[in-house]
Amino acid sequence: MEYEKLSTGASIPVLGFGTYQLEKSDVADSIQGAIDAGYRHFDCAHIYGNEVEVGTALKNSGVKREDLFITSKVWNDDQGYDSTLKAFDKTLNDLQLDYLDLYLIHWPNEENFQLTLDTWKALEKIYADGKAKAIGVSNFSIEQLKEVFDMAKVKPMVNQIERHPFKTQIELSKFDTDNDILNEGYSPIGHGHLVLEDETINKIAKAHNKSAAQVVLRWQIDEGFVIFPKSSNIDHVKANIDIFDFELTKDEIKKIDALDQNKHLNYDN
């Protein structure tokens, strides 16, 4: 495993396991399979509806708490100071944890951004109380981050954004880096059939004797992103972590960067 550094100095595994759309009935086997394959970083959220099951699976995994990196997020309906604190306590209880390694605002409130700013104040309290070792945001634009900067006592440490070869987010990710915000990328291979059939990516994969998915995940990491592909297929789970025995050349990275279409494959920011 390789690691990036948060602005706090804490290490975060660059490859995690995503729990989005992971069915409750599949959680125990999927989490244990990921643990056995070497994953120690798990990306969760209240809205995923499976935090109770994820918490139980992690507790039963046999891995020490200090060896895990666990993220969760406050959902839109729970934004606001008091409601965020309440939502955080529920997530902590559901996951059966004493603290989170990272807690994020899942989405900015476009209609009432003041509510999002109040939510950030709640995250600052959670951080000050030691209940989350780091705090950050997800799906925030440069303009929204600047609004947070204007009122924050603690700046966001992470911005989790959609990121894949068809949407490289160059400007936003550079802004994050320049402000000591670590970039995390969700949907790291996009919608597989769209990205993984690309001719450029497959040529690079052949040169490294790797799959197209492995090349895209390696590209993400080589460009400083923390990522967490999700799969309930154990073969894919194992293949996704088998990316630390090669690196892409600068030329290969440029060729993948050039695939950018500024194309959302998920919801718009």
TrEMBL record:
Residues 15-260 form the NADP-dependent oxidoreductase domain. Keywords: NADP, Oxidoreductase. Transmembrane segments: none annotated. It holds the Pfam family Aldo_ket_red. The active site is at 48 (proton donor). The keyword Ligase does not apply. Belongs to the aldo/keto reductase family. This is Aldo keto reductase.
